[in-house]
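Objective 1.3, modelling of assemblies. Example input:
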Amino acid sequence: MNFINPWGLLFGLSIPAIILLYLLKQQHEDVEVSSTFLWRMALKDVQASQPWQRLKRNLLLLLQLLAAAVITLMIARPYLASEAQGYDYVIILDVSASMQAVDVKPSRFDKAKDEINKLIDGLLPQEHMSIVAVDSKARIAANWSSDRAALKEALNSLKPVNAADNMDDAVSLAQAMAKERANARIYIYSDKPYGFDDKAYQSVVICGDPVNRAVTGVSYTASDDGIAVLSKIINFSDDAALSVECLADGKTIDVKEVNIPSGKTADVYWDDIPDNAGIIEIRILNEDDLMVDNAGWVTIRAADKAKVLLVTQRNVFLEKALSLRNDIDVLKTTYDEADDMRGYRLYIFDGYMPAETPKDGNMIIFNPKGENDLFKIGETYKPGNIKARDMSAYADIMQYVRPEGFHIAKAVHIETPPWVDVLFGDETNPLMLIGQQDTRRIAVFPFDIHDSDIPLKVDFPILMQNILAWMLPPVVNSDVQIYAGMDVDINPLPQAEYVDVIAPSGTTAALMPPFPIAPFANTDEVGVYTVEQRWSDGSAKGYFTVAIPVEQESDLTAQGKSYAQAPSRQTDAKPASRTELWPYLAWIALSIVLIEWQVYQRGY
Amino acid sequence: MAQTLLEQDFLNKLERLSLSTRMMVKGDAGGNRKSHAKGSSVEFSDFKEYVPGDDFRHIDWNAYARFERLFLKLFTEERETVVTVFLDCSKSMDWGEPNKGFFAKQIAAALVYIALSNFDRTAVAALNQRVQISMPILSGKQSFWRALKFIDGIDFNGKTGLSGAIKSYEGLGSRSGISIILTDLFSEDGYKEGIKYLQYKKQDTTIIHIMAPQEMEPPWQDSVRLLDIEGYEYRDITIKQDVLSAYKKALDDFLSDNRRFCYERGVHYIPVSSAVGVDRVIFDSLFATGVVR
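Predicted structure (tokens):
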């Protein structure tokens, strides 16, 4: 027999205490007798006057000692286990969005916590436990502790989030932790079954009979007819007629009944959206076991148009390429008129360069000429075979562009400053330089594009769009759906001095200063986030939406990954249990106390 | 006293009784007891031949008619004797339910009544460690009320020292008599020396050993502190079956030791419980042993 709480045996001190109390108590009833003469004679035979003799045959005392012994055992919590040796446990607790589902009462997450609490209660003094919480990242909530209170505190501080789980991360972390220990067990508490072929791993599945539907996506198109919104609703449960609501800036626009067969996705279109609508929210009104994925958002409110200054004598190709972007406002000017150069997000200099380059915007420079504060311009030469240069941080800009096909008649030498990368050039000389100086993004082409065949190539508009995309980034890249728990890269305007991110609940996080700006990581809330940029004489707002990772999390009956070559189906396995004896001891103690009461009542 | 010692009905019954003695009585005053002195009474004793000088009034003329010789009829002269009732008045007697002391007083009163009714001279002495108080020798039935008043007035206090108290009693004189001791025999210095002294004083001695029912069957259990009522000591004990058995054995040993001693000394030993009535003591216990008849 082993004890979970050997310190409980200290309660055994109550046994001598009871005996002592009995000795001290010995409450004598005073009785007057005519003479103690006969008693003296009687007691010569029976040595009853000695204290321990009085304790003899005292049924009450015996019962009390028995009860104290049983209670002592009970507190020490003996248990029967097939393996007497203790384990060290790594507990992986899934805190992802699907754990919020309430198909298991009170919720999958709370149920999992209960199960882990039971395991903590059964922890032996020589056993240790680590708790790894996993959402989009795995993190250690408790590190090899045998302190039950500390473990419970760590466990109870965990909350389910809206992110997807990154079980690979968690399993590899747990394996690394388990390696430190000789006899480690890894238990995964999740709503998805995970398969292992190693008995040291067990997957505890917390899953009921879930009902769930989710909004998987919301998008819009703006045309002359107005704004049209497309929403996608997926039904993971039985065939259902769902009520779906469309809200614009919090006001209901329409409600539709949609019949969606089991396991299918339905497209729901919405028109009659007001032209000035900013945020469209699509909501499933029917209740299900996971409510957090029943809404989706899209932001329509366009960012302010970016102002671009083009300084050129004449460049049809460039103008054509710029006109492809409808979110920019291009102001064209000639060399002579280029004097007030302030307040633009992008300056494009074609065959011209001011001596002092503007500080408040990004720059694209074609065929630079004259003295300037960025780099020194050298002799004209004829470039050789053009090649792309690999290994650049800006390689994305060359996506779908093949510079090997370019031919350039003449170019100028440029002394390469340290802050630029060369994206392509001939054997020795750079022909496209790109870099970032402080907050300014700068691209330099040391040739006139009229002296090349580049504008005639299909690569040119692609290259221009890539450059423009980099030069005029949206505050947040809206092409990629952001899911809860993901990091969001915020691209502040060059002139922005302060950047705040306002969460859907209204909490504000200051991102800048300091500079450079760190990715915004606090994206657990779902909904529309506002990015507010402020500078000395202006401000700008941008928006991004964060959604539940529906693909991983909304299917509440999803299967987990198998981490075994030959997956062993250990779903719903219970952790190696030990039989605790204290409930039986408690019953025995209760019976003894009842018997004692009876004995007392009958006055034995 | 809340209770009268004896009822009149009971006294009437007692009139027919007398105290017997195995010894012939010596004494001066004429009484109801046979004495060695032959004299004038109605009780025939013997014949003897007439010699000159004899009282010719006692010549049995019927015998002369038959034998033609003169015979004198001899009669046992009846003499009175002194009955001394020793009453143990120590504190230990004032105990028990029914109270031993009251019971002893009842017996004493009854014995005094019997004695006075039989023209015996009667004395009562209350003893603890010494003679606490004693009643002068009374005679005649008319003295009974005085004796009763005396008995009624006896207080129970002090320790018991029976032997010493008896030896210090000066009312016995040199003539033989009857001594009856009413006691619980819980005596500091024992009682045997006192009995020997009484026998030396030619007393026909009877011990009426009075015990309360609580002494014979202790009603307590578990932890008790026994306080000696006479203040000798206290004793903490836990009364269990084994202790009770030991007590019973000690009691039996005590009684049989008393019985053996008394048998050897020719003393009447009558253990009685205060729970039985005084009439039962007189008519059963004392009658059976021949102390009264």
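The two ends of chain B are 30 Å apart (CA to CA).
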